[in-house]
Amino acid sequence: MRITVKGPEEEKHKEIMALRQKVAGGKASEEDLELLKSKTKALMDEILSRPLEEVCRIQEIECKIPEKARIFSSVTCSCCGEKVMETRARVKDGQPTCIPCAENYNRGWGGS
Ligand SMILES: [Zn+2]
Predict the structure, then answer these.
(1) Ligand 1 mean position, distance from CA 70 (Å)
(2) How far apart are the CA of 105 and the centre of ligand 1, in A?
(3) What is the Å distance from ligand 1's center to 69 Cα?
(4) Do the beta carbons of residue 96 and residue 75 sit within 8 Å?
(5) In three state form, how does the secondary structure of 40-86 look?
């Protein structure tokens, strides 16, 4: 959701900001302070007296929530050529291998 203030207030807003900076910098006179107060109030009144849709533009921003259950890609077993889900694949010599093949491999190495 994004709210953008639009309209001719921007110029007035700049005036107010300039005055505020003056005040913050300790360079403001009594007059400046009064001016800041009245300008701020005038701007607020103006904004508040108008319908919200006119002052702000409210946009619904669509955000895509990634699906929880992602589909895992499958890999091909380097041993028997079977398609194996990536999450279930084992790795043998740096190659994806299905579980049965990986087990056979391990057994083979375990020595009989
Ligand atoms: Zn295999």
Answers:
(1) 24
(2) 10
(3) 25
(4) yes
(5) HHHHHHHHHHCCHHHHEEEECCCCCCCCCCCCCCEEECCCCCCEEEH
Rounded to whole angstroms, the Cα distance separating 89 from 6 reads 56
| Stated pTM of the model | 0.37
More confident residue, 59 or 17: 17
Q: What is the distance in A from the centroid of ligand 1 to the CA of 30?
A: 86
**Contact (Cβ atoms closer than 8 angstroms) between residue 4 and residue 56:** yes
How far, in Å, from the CA of 90 to the mean position of ligand 1?
9
Q: Give 109 Cα–ligand 1 centroid separation in angstroms.
A: 16
Tens-digit pLDDT profile for residues 28-64: 899 999 999 998 888 888 877 877 676 666 667 676 7
Question: Nearest-CA neighbor of 93 among 80, 105, 82, 104?
Answer: 105
